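hi!! sorry for the late reply, been swamped w classes. u asked for the two structures so here they r. pasted raw, havent cleaned anything up. first the sequence of the first protein and right below it the tokens
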Amino acid sequence: MKYLILGAGPAGLTFANKLKQDGETSFLVLERESAAGGLCRSVDVDGSPFDIGGGHFLDVRRPQVNEFLFGFMPEDEWDKYTRDSRIVVKGNEVNHPIEANIWQMKLDDQVEYLKSIAQAGCNTGEPMPEAFVDWIYWKLGSKVAEDYMIPYNQKLFNKELNQLGTYWLEKLPNVSFEETLRSCLERKAYGTQPGHAQFYYPKKYGYGELWLRMADSIKNNIEYGKAVKGIDFNSKTVTTSDGERYQADVIITTIPWMEFDEIVGMPVDIKESIGELKFSSIQTEYFSENLDTKCQWIYYPDPKLPYHRILVRHNFCPNSKGYWTETNSERIDMEGPNDNFKYMNQYAYPLNTIRKSEMMKKLLTWSAEQGVYGLGRWGEHQHYNSDVTVDLAMKMAEEQMTSAH
């Protein structure tokens, strides 16, 4: 075929559907699982949808993305929410992000946080450090660092935080002492809204329904149960675990690069760098009791709790009950035995290790020169939300079709 697409998650499904809409019929999608959706799949648990990959919502900020997706699941099938997410830290429950909502804490805690922010390196003119942990102290002050950012990131990503680079943290806002003080005095938040400030979620289904419909629209061009094992760059051939071989003019890979057991024709240094890529695995677990809160999700930096956040299902999924937790696989042994529904996502979050940017740039540049393109959270090893992934896939499909003509 002309296009071979590896993985039927948001990236692969968007790319494939965009090809079809532009009149291209010579494409095939290979998917390891028996159903499409990737990290955004949903299953029915306790009579309501459960998103096995964790909390996934459709952000409102990309109109062209939403317009494309509403072509598969019309807008009137979605509810629109204003984000209410919170952080439980040292006995305080405050809105996210923490730096904008210190005014919601107990008065004594506000004073301590304000003092530490005033002394943060970015506010006192100290040079920016390079180590991850030092950077957090420098940017946010010791209280935000020690009470929230460091323990939360250790729970979510890795105990050894200095393996991570700081290049991806630039989007964190500057925590200015003046603005934080004014916020506490006026008792209101300040600064820019975080991602998902407003979001869509289906009225009757889990988020996975969207991707099932996208898969159904190209059902004659998808093969399920096809785990990709090898890739030959010389012949542009992909081999699956059942011994099948697929050849294409262009290969779009949205699967983790670590999944290729055999790679032929790639320079040794690039191939070895794939082994350095790191990721974290996350288990989601369902609990049936309703929580007395109006928020949709809550972050828990407390190291004594195994999970790092919960999704309050009954506050975004109509006629449902309960909540689910997200727990790093390294912390699961902290949990007691129970019969709850659980799902382990081996590939949940790509880790932004120190050398990742330069390794991925080299890998993706070289691969593209061979007609093999990495796309999406795993093809690019970037922590993209689904709306960003769809946007990138739409653009890549347009670029491919333009160059083909």
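now the second protein. again sequence first, tokens right under
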Amino acid sequence: MNFLSGEFPEFLRFGVGVYVDRFVNWLLRDFSHVFDALVEGGLAFLLTVESFLRWLPWWMICLLVFLAAWKARNWLSGLLYAFFLFLLGIFGLWDMMIQTLSIVLTSVVICFILGIPVGIFMAYNEKANNVIRPILDAMQTIPSFVYLIPAVMLFGMGKIPAVFATTVYAVAPVIRLTDLGIRRVSREMVEAAHSFGSSTWQTLTKVQLPQALPTIMTGVNQTTMMALAMVVISSMIGAEGLGMEVLIANQRLDIAKGFEAGISIVFLAIIIDRISQGAVNRYRFPEN
């Protein structure tokens, strides 16, 4: 045993991978019915969103984007973003866009349902905050490719593991900013609500959440952008859409297809980001 050598000592090595493997096998063996139910419920919701988007005429979706951008920003932005969406149809990627948008919207809804309550719990419980905050730090530090491993192990290949991986990757901002928004509500407003006889629930719903709404909306915006950033990575586990087109183009060195699919993701990201940011600014700086 030579401690002066450059190699790490063999007797100090310890592998944890085998225990993680046993844990996952235990989950699959004893809780397979839970994961089956999650797959069925998630797939039903995802297909509902996708079916609704396919039911809408293409011009209706462009019109809705125009109206949303006009409301959030101005009519010129509305025309520009509607034109971006129109270009996706010209590129022949409209169906791919619908599939990508369905996965993103489903993931964002799940992040919203899970993230808001967790953020509120962190704001009200300092011990929980101290425990959850390092977990969120780890979630935002771990490379996004790592999330594909448990997603495939627990849910197999396809859209549902893509939604799972996207949700885990993107949920942290909405949790953090919900916690931050509630904490930044002035103590005087909270004390005034209590002095007028408001319960904790009434204070939360009628004082703290309305005041924290701009910050929470910023978290939703960041979560949406992170979910969209996962579309290419999720294609590696069978998620169809624009990400799959980029992946296929890379494998075939198809520059034309890669450019069209890549710029389409950029257009979609610009549309979602600008409209949601415009909505945040409306909440933060309401018109007189």
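hope this helps!! also noticed smth abt the second:
The CA atoms of residues 119 and 179 lie 4 Å apart.
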